[in-house]
Design brief:
By secondary structure, the protein is mainly alpha-helical. 60% of the residues lie in helices and 0% in strands.
Length: 124
């Protein structure tokens, strides 16, 4: 009798593990856009720079820029070295204008804005 119960219990356990490993559904483009539009850095100076220089593209899915807060879109960019990523920001890359049109942003500001948009605020 114990063997008859073992197989169904084992199969139920496997089914639970498989279900737990399934990925969560990706938020829709509209949800990711709304999230990006609502994001705002906590630091007032960075918030002002983000609002006037970054948000126009990084909260607009039609721009081709990775949406702020979209970790999946930012991951491949963050996998590059910090020097490469910062260089792209400074000189411009593809459709992105030089410095993201934040000409008063220091390299430290740029790093903090990238971390914020990639949902890694405070990361280095």
């Amino acid at each position: 009798m114990a063997h008859r119960l073992s197989l169904p219990l084992a199969l139920a356990g496997v089914a639970i593990l498989v279900a737990a490993c399934e990925q969560k559904p990706q938020p829709s483009l509209a949800e990711r856009t709304a999230f990006a539009e609502a994001m705002q850095p906590a630091d007032a100076t960075l918030a002002e720079k983000y609002s006037r220089s970054c948000k126009a593209c990084h909260a607009n899915p039609d721009s081709g820029a990775p949406l702020a807060g979209d970790i999946d879109a930012w991951s491949p960019r963050l996998n590059q070295s910090e020097a490469v990523l910062l260089g792209h920001v400074r000189t411009g890359y593809k459709a992105m204008p030089a410095s993201g049109q934040c000409f008063d942003c220091s390299d430290e500001d740029m790093k903090q804005l990238i971390a914020f948009m990639a949902k890694r605020e405070g990361a280095r």
